[in-house]
Design a protein that fits this description.
489 residues, Helicase, Ruva Protein, domain 3, Rossmann fold, 5-stranded parallel beta sheet, 14 strands
Length: 489
């Protein structure tokens, strides 16, 4: 427990029929910054607890009228959120077990070897009570967001308030919107919020990852094709612009589309019509276009890899999404949001996140942004054995539980670190090291060209990009991109 935690003020009730000890504990806890109410009667304590809120209560077990255990049961019945610490000069295993079963947070034996033991116990109990209150606030905030147009856009930080304001401001127009931000920041969630809030909400919302398809397949998916347009086109096929007629189409990774497709997309934006692959006949469509990219489109324009006229057509309204490391205050809310989602989905009784786990999550940079946080919480809920996610449930990257690995077998000096890991954890780290090294070597050999690297690896381009994106946090920010990637550090 650090000093900041120990000094956290709390409202504390101390009940003990020994006046000298009662006064001493009052003085000690006030010096620690707590607001303290001291009583020598358990009956008086029940009255105060019925009328006032407390964070922590300390009860002596042996008292006249009502015993400490009886008082504990009464408190947990009326105010289960109050953290109770039991004190006794006659410690037995039976009384300790009875106190814990009744809901006591801690159990202290008098006389105290060091009065700081009491202060530390109160600090820890106050921290737990603070977590309870914070969870209740987060659950209330999440309930308020349910059913709203911006559901899914979880966050109360200044950057996210600005995103929500932009969504509210432009959702009702038919204007094209370009959503920018790092991978995993939630660009599709913004697109869906724009559609849900718009007059087009009763019509289709169609999403496509443009970087996942070859040029021919991309154009066929977007605009459709006629029979015989290319090998395998055995019948006429409507495209996604047809499917989204009257609604919204979301084009993710717009920076990855080839120049020839950019020309056809520009025609849609300018004329409101498409031509199916293999046909010269125009087809009118009424579709709002939302696009997203993690790339620097102005840089691609200067390099001649993205049409300037298309960029300006897409960038009528720009909604930039902040990386998670720039909205750290949203991490607790997001964490609880995902805990609730996956606990329900997986049938687990996980309700909250322990403060030490939240502290680790708030100190991690989240290179994969909200998507990485969501994956970490899903993993934690699966592994969690209680009702609260603890540090041990989080991925090693978040907790810093890493060990030095070698490329082949560990040297004798590394064996202790190697054997400290489970088989699964060691295998995961070894595979990750291999994967990163292999991708780095391929990208260097192919001068940063993703398509060439994917072919060399014998992988589909979209699958190779998925692997590559795991390591994009190591990308040099000033290295130029192509329809490819940047050099890995």
């Amino acid at each position: 427990m650090n000093e900041a935690t120990e000094a956290r003020p709390a409202r504390v009730l101390v009940v003990d029929d020994e006046p000298t000890l009662l006064r001493a504990m009052e003085a000690l806890l006030r010096r620690k910054g707590h607001e303290v109410i001291g009583l020598d009667s358990s009956i008086a304590a029940t009255q105060r607890l019925a009328q006032e809120d407390f964070d922590v209560a300390l009860f002596d077990i042996k008292m006249p009228q009502l015993s400490g255990l009886e008082l504990l049961n009464a408190v947990k019945h009326r105010r289960p959120e109050v953290e109770v610490i039991m004190m006794t000069g006659h410690a037995t295993v039976e009384t300790a077990l009875a106190a814990v079963r009744a809901g006591a947070y801690d159990y202290l034996t008098k006389p105290f070897e060091d009065v700081e033991v009491v202060a530390r116990a109160v600090a820890k109990a106050a921290e737990r009570k603070m977590l309870f209150d914070r969870n209740r606030q987060l659950e209330s905030a999440l309930r308020e967001r349910e059913g709203t147009p911006s559901e899914g856009l979880v966050g109360t930080s200044a950057p996210m308030r600005e995103v929500t304001r932009m969504v509210e401001a432009v959702a009702y127009s038919a204007t094209t919107v370009l959503i920018t931000g790092e991978s995993g920041t939630g660009k599709e969630l913004v697109a869906r919020a724009l559609h849900t809030r718009s007059p087009r909400r009763s019509h289709p919302f169609v999403a496509l990852n443009c970087g996942a398809l070859t040029e021919t397949l991309l154009e066929s998916e977007l605009f459709g094709h006629v029979k015989g347009a290319f090998t395998g086109a055995q019948r006429d096929q409507r495209g996604l612009f047809d499917a989204a007629d009257g609604g919204t189409i979301f084009l993710d990774e717009i920076g990855d589309i080839p120049l020839s497709t950019q020309v056809r997309l520009l025609r849609v934006l300018q004329e409101g019509e498409i031509k199916r692959v293999g046909s010269a006949d125009p087809v009118r469509v009424d579709v709002r276009v939302l696009a997203a990219t993690h790339r620097d489109l102005p840089k691609l324009v200067k390099a001649g890899r993205f049409r300037e006229d298309l960029f300006y057509r897409l960038n009528v309204i720009n909604i930039p999404l902040p990386p998670l490391r720039e909205r750290v205050e949203d991490i607790p809310l997001l964490a609880h949001h995902f805990v609730r989602r996956y606990a329900e989905r997986l049938g687990k009784k996980v309700r909250t996140v322990a403060p030490e786990a939240l502290e680790l999550m708030c100190g991690y940079r989240w290179p994969g942004n909200v998507r990485e946080l969501e994956n970490a919480i899903e993993r934690a809920v699966v592994l969690c054995r209680g009702d609260s996610v603890v540090p041990g449930d989080l991925p090693p990257a978040v907790t810093g539980r890493t060990a030095p690995l070698v490329r082949e077998a560990p040297a004798s000096g590394d064996e202790a670190a190697w054997l400290a890991l489970s088989y699964a954890a060691a295998k995961e780290q070894a595979l990750r090291r291999f994967e990163k090294g292999y991708v780095e070597a391929l990208m260097r050999a192919c001068d940063g060209n993703i398509s060439a690297a994917a072919r060399k690896a014998g992988m589909d381009r979209s699958n190779f990009k998925r692997v590559l994106r795991k390591y994009r946090t190591d990308v040099e920010p000033d290295t130029e991109e192509d329809g490819s990637s940047r050099a890995l550090a």
